[in-house]
Amino acid sequence: MTWRGSYTVVYTAAARRQMNRLPLAAAMAMHDHLTGPVADNPHRLGKRLDVPFDGLCSTRRGEYRALYSIDDGRITVTVVTVAHRRDAYRPS
Q1: Quick check: 10 and 76 in contact, CB under 8 A?
Q2: How many Cβ atoms are within 10 Å of 51's Cβ, its own excluded?
Q3: DSSP string, the chain
Q4: CATH number of 13-88
Q5: Domain parsing of the chain, residue ranges
Q6: 15: burial class by Cβ within 10 Å (0-12, 13-18, 19+)?
Q7: Could you tell me which residues are beta bridge partners of residue 57?
Q8: Sheet containing 57-61: which strands, arranged edge to edge?
Q9: Is the pTM of the predicted complex or chain greater than 0.85?
């Protein structure tokens, strides 16, 4: 049996700070994207990333990217990074 419904979206403290630094329209669009289509089906919308981001997925909204992990056991999507595409894939 497959679970149907939305995943809970959780932002890390760093992702929350990054969202606050985005232009308002971009932050609202990204939040709506993450809590809407991504929460409904994070595996379909996310692109699996390779090393050094192993275990994370990426989704885009305009010029911005969100990197997140999926916990199917807890039905949770944890947003780790939200940044402009030129900065999103730079290891910290």
Answers
A1: yes
A2: 7
A3: ----SPPEEEE-HHHHHHHHHS-HHHHHHHHHHIIIIIHH-HHHHPEE--TTSTT-EEEEETTEEEEEEEETTTTEEEEEEEEEHHHHTS--
A4: 3.30.2310.20
A5: 13-88
A6: buried
A7: 48, 68
A8: 8-11, 76-84, 64-71, 57-61, 47-48
A9: yes
Q: What is the residue type of 81?
A: T
Strand partners, 73: none
Q: How far apart are CA 57 and CA 81, in angstroms?
A: 10
Q: Give the model confidence (pLDDT) of 33-81 as tens digits.
A: 999 999 999 999 899 999 899 999 999 999 999 999 999 999 999 999 9
Cis ω for the linkage preceding 52 (within 30 of 0): yes
